[in-house]
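In response to the reviewer comment on reproducibility (Comment 2.3), we provide here a single inverse folding case reported in full, input and output, so that an independent group could reproduce the run without further information from us. The structure tokens appear first.
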């Protein structure tokens, strides 16, 4: 595991809180009692904050609403549709509800709807094999073909492992095919970082995110202020997106 991957996993609220608690125990044993108490309070406050649905709705909503999801017919036509690899929350309709395969919307589903609506005649899928197996680009191609998209209407970029690489390698492919206008498809939460990454490559993508997932559920007994395990789970992706935006800005990738 690289240092960046280690830090990305460390800042996940539950992981960070556990780490702080372990450190607090060590400091308590070493008789640094006040520091240990401070870390304990901080760890508990951090995990409680992110376990509250209102925290995820606020922090995640800021990212998801940056580029609102729109019906395919309301988006302009372009030369291509670019779909980034990733499987945020398995495409579940709402992060605060149980997963339902019937209502799940993957990024490829969004791309297929755009294609069916005549928004572009070509789909570019981007993503390498994260585990050494089949690349995300290939898996997305299979999903699109299952949705009725002709094989000849799909281009694959299967070398990128990060959003930055998605932008760099896809930019090369687009320029090779003289594609200047394209719709960019990814999750609503990921769209701000994706847009910034592609714009950094001198491109002008048109945002076409999948529907937002961090929204108030339909459950009648839903509470904004009661700790919820799904809210804490959602915080994992939210915090990593904010960290990703910060790191990309520092490294000049966005």
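Designed residues, in position order:
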């Amino acid at each position: 595991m690289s240092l960046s991957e280690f830090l990305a996993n460390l800042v996940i609220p539950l992981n960070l809180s556990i780490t702080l608690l372990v450190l607090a125990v060590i400091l308590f044993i070493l008789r640094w009692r006040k520091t240990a108490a401070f870390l304990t309070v901080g760890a508990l406050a951090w995990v409680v904050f992110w376990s509250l649905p209102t925290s995820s709705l606020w922090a995640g909503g800021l990212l998801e609403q940056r580029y609102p999801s729109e019906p395919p017919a309301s988006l302009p036509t372009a030369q291509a549709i670019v779909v980034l690899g990733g499987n945020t929350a398995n495409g579940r309709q709402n992060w605060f509800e149980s997963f339902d395969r019937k209502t799940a919307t993957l990024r490829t589903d969004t791309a297929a709807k755009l294609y069916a609506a005549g928004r572009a005649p070509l789909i570019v899928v981007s993503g390498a094999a994260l585990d050494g197996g089949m690349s995300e680009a290939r898996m997305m191609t299979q999903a699109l073909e299952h949705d009725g998209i002709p094989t000849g209407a799909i281009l694959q970029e299967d070398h990128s492992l990060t959003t930055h690489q998605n932008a760099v390698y896809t930019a090369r492919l687009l320029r090779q095919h003289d594609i200047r206008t394209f719709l960019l498809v990814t999750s609503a939460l990921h769209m701000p970082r994706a847009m910034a990454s592609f714009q950094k490559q001198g491109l002008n993508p048109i945002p076409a995110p999948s529907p937002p997932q961090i929204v108030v559920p339909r459950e009648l007994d839903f509470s904004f202020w009661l700790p919820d395990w799904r809210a804490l789970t959602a915080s994992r992706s939210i915090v990593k997106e904010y960290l990703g935006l910060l790191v990309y800005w520092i490294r000049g990738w966005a």
